[in-house]
Amino acid sequence: MIFVNSMIDLFHRDVPKSFILKVFSIMRLAPWHLLQILTKRSERLLELSSALPWTENTWMGVSVESPEYASRIDDMRRTGASFT
């Protein structure tokens, strides 16, 4: 398992969409790895979701540090991420 960008939030507003697409395209080339991505920016994740090349080996997660942020889970569920 590889934790993708463990020291940054890939969906931060300052990360260009083109960079995010490139990261996902590269992950698609390595289906033998399990790739985990975590974000606190569930709104941006949802906004970009339809443009991302989701694969079964990409595990998407959202941080929910308190009940106040539980809506992030619903945002993630509405993406193209696999939940198998």
Describe this structure in words.
With 84 residues, the chain is α/β, with parallel strands linked by helices. The chain has one domain (2-77). Helices cover 31% and strands 14% of the residues. It has three helices and three strands, in the order E-H-E-H-E-H. Strand 1 (2-3), helix 1 and strand 2 (35-39) form a beta-alpha-beta unit. The protein is globular and about 35 Å long. The mean pLDDT is 93.
Helix-strand layout with pairing:
Elements lengths: L1 E2 L13 H12 L6 E5 L2 H7 L9 E5 L8 H7 L7
Parallel strand pairs: 1-2, 2-3
Helix pairs in contact: 2-3
Summarize the structure.
The chain has three helices and three strands.
- Can you tell me the overall shape? globular
> Strand content of the residues, in percent?
5-15%
Strand order of the largest sheet: 1-2-3
Please summarize the sheet with the most strands. 3 strands, parallel
**How do the SSEs run, as a string of H and E?**
EHEHEH
- Please state the CA-atom Rg, rounded to the nearest Å: 12 Å
Could you give the distance between the termini? 16 Å
Structural class: alpha/beta
Q: Average pLDDT, to the nearest integer?
A: 93
How many distinct beta strands?
3
Could you say how many structural domains there are in total? 1
| Helical coverage, percent range | 25-40%
Low-confidence stretches: none
* Count of runs of 4 or more consecutive helical residues: 3
